[in-house]
Automatic annotation (TrEMBL):
Taxonomic source organism: Mycobacterium pinniadriaticum
Lineage: Bacteria, Bacillati, Actinomycetota, Actinomycetes, Mycobacteriales
Pathway: Cofactor biosynthesis; molybdopterin biosynthesis
Cited InterPro entries: MoaB/Mog-like_dom_sf, MoaB/Mog_dom, MoeA-like, MoeA_C_domain_IV, MoeA_C_domain_IV_sf, MoeA_linker/N, MoeA_linker/N_sf
Name this protein carries in UniProt: Molybdopterin molybdenumtransferase
Required co-factors: Mg(2+)
Length: 407
């Protein structure tokens, strides 16, 4: 069987970064910058007031904290006023936060330190020169590199770009992923179940995992176990995705539609397709049957159909490769070491991923639910995966165990 590490490398080699694209600011949120960003102008653009108050010359109100000084208010300057003003000696201009400072002013006195009048104002504090003035360029100097390639576009980064008058950024685009479930037994929620039918859940679950990882979901179609239908559905989305993820149809039984469609048994594959998919057994539990390859140049990752196997396989193989292709930080889940709170067993020769509940305060982890791959309830409430090495078959309470933090 292929090792987990080997299959991780296979998947990582398949999923490549998309060509950088220039997009609007709202589209850039959460993506990674492909280029450095240099400031086209300085911030602040002009000297402006940091307070609502009065612009004046500091030397005109020396000693005002002990002996208040009255000055005539010559102008009213709201934010957004665009005409150039000059402050005459011995006068004040009422000014709002962000409004341009008049030439000649050397300080701003907050309105709280005055009587707030608009004709003649009483100044009750003696400011130092430069007090409550934001100088042009004190935040950003034009030409300075303010954002770096490889940096995630956060709300603060968007705010800075917008403040600099930039309408777009060059980023590494999201991976576009087609998530496809297979199985004749699958029906949509809201449909009455017939004997032998179950509600489709993998596409919903895996699509959410793709989005949580930073990708974009193209669609979530479902196919029966008929090769012709599977092929038709897949061909209907040709060229729309950078990655295809399927679930189900990759095991060793009959009606393995994904295997059958991609030369897994009967030599058939979607008409006009090129490339191929390699189906392997990976030494892990859950998630042993796996597949990966290229179809018409598009990477395809085929996951097992049991829901826990599908999601654990996504976490182990797809999520880190997907995030790495988009340049996102921390492609891997955080790894922790914790004290095992209960005994466990693991199959020899396989790396086991057990659902667990991690208590960060106590530094302990408890296995959660049975290890079988159909127990989705337990995975839904777990906050970690315990990683048990291939050569470990038993662990006792009190031992140190490695885990993947899913919280």
């Amino acid at each position: 069987m292929r090792t987990v590490s080997e299959h991780q490398r296979v998947v990582a080699d398949l999923i490549a970064a998309r060509t950088a694209a220039t997009v609007g600011l709202t589209e850039a949120e959460g993506l990674v910058l492909a280029d450095d960003v240099a400031a086209p102008l300085s911030l602040p653009v002009f000297d402006n007031s940091a307070m609502d108050g009065y612009a004046l010359r500091a030397e005109d109100v020396t000693g005002a904290d002990k002996n208040p000084v009255k000055l005539p208010v010559a102008e009213d300057i709201p934010a957004g006023r665009t005409d150039a003003l000059t402050l005459a000696p011995g006068t004040a201009h009422r000014i709002m936060t962000g409004a341009p400072l008049p030439a000649g002013a050397t300080a701003v006195v907050p309105v709280e330190a005055t009587d707030a009048r608009t004709d003649t104002v009483e100044i009750r504090s003696a400011p130092k020169a430069g007090q409550h003035i934001r100088r042009a360029g004190e935040d950003v100097t034009a030409g300075t590199t303010v954002l770096r390639a490889g940096q995630v576009v956060t709300p603060a980064a968007l705010g800075l770009a917008a403040a600099l008058g930039l309408g777009s950024l060059t980023v590494r685009p999201r991976q576009r992923v087609l998530v496809m479930s297979t199985g004749t037994e699958l029906v949509s929620a809201g449909t009455d179940l017939k004997p032998g039918q179950i509600y489709e859940s993998n596409a919903i679950m895996l699509a959410a995992a793709v989005r949580e990882a930073g990708g974009e979901v193209v669609a979530t179609p479902t196919s029966s176990d008929d090769v012709a239908q599977f092929s038709a559905v897949l061909e209907g989305y040709a060229g729309q995705a950078d990655l295809i993820i399927t679930s189900g149809g990759v095991s060793a039984g009959a009606y393995e539609v994904v295997k059958d469609a991609f030369d897994g048994g009967d030599g058939r594959r979607p008409s006009g397709s090129s490339g191929g998919v390699e189906f392997v057994k990976v030494a892990m539990q859950p998630g042993m049957p796996q597949g990966a390859g290229l179809i018409n140049g598009c990477p395809i990752i085929t996951l097992p159909g049991n829901p826990v196997s599908a999601l654990v396989s996504f976490e182990v193989f797809v999520r880190p490769a997907l995030r790495a292709a988009m340049g996102l930080p921390h492609p891997h889940r955080p790894r922790r070491t914790a004290v095992l709170a209960d005994d466990l067993t693991s199959p020899p020769g396989k790396r086991q991923f057990r659902r667990g509940v991690y208590d960060a305060a106590a530094g302990t982890v408890t296995t959660y639910g049975p290890p079988a791959s159909h127990h989705l309830r337990w995975l839904a409430s777990a906050n970690c995966l315990l990683e048990i090495a291939e050569d470990v078959t038993e662990m006792a309470a009190g031992e140190q165990v490695q885990l993947w933090d899913l919280s």
